[in-house]
Amino acid sequence: MFGIVNLGLVLLSLKKNKKAGKFLPSFNNVLEVKHHIKGRLRLKVHTLYYNDEAISHLDRNLKKLKEIKEVSLDKRSSSVIIKYNEDELDPVIIISVILKVLKLEEQIDSSTNSFLIEKLSSIKDSLNLTIHEKTNGLLNLESLLLIVFFTTGIYKLAKKPRVFPGGVTLLWWSYQIISKNRKKSKWVKEKNAL
Predict the structure, then answer these.
(1) Domains delineated in the chain
(2) Which terminus has fewer CB within 10 Å in the chain: N or C?
């Protein structure tokens, strides 16, 4: 039986295939529906690129389904062509089987970040490492932001209490950073104690 998560992922990513008049799930850079007509489905499955083990695993599992007439896999183009009995098997089921057999559910979840978010996250990680190295481990990005928010909050409360964001807001942000780190350190200590 296909998991509820797998079904949810399939339903969330429905893509209209105009030629077949069907809604088919397509996941960018994981599993993409390239073409579909009744009885024939062409997919691009990125994990199959020169991956002989995954190709043979998928081929064996797809051929177990009696409704599938023919399977053609190409490791150079990551292409999968499936000919099937359209009266007995829905193409969404084929896609679900491929997702499950190749364990692609996690890749689908992890690929939901936008390009911009991934690049900003990379910049944040680089800044964090640079600050940590330049201060010989005394500070990291989070502790530096804590100091900036805290001192700016105190200054704004003392000098300019009506400027947005207010001093109270900046103090609250610094408190949130401190409390988050305390929870993390308690969890790490408890984990290490086990």
Answers:
(1) 4-110 (3.30.70.100), 115-193 (no CATH)
(2) C
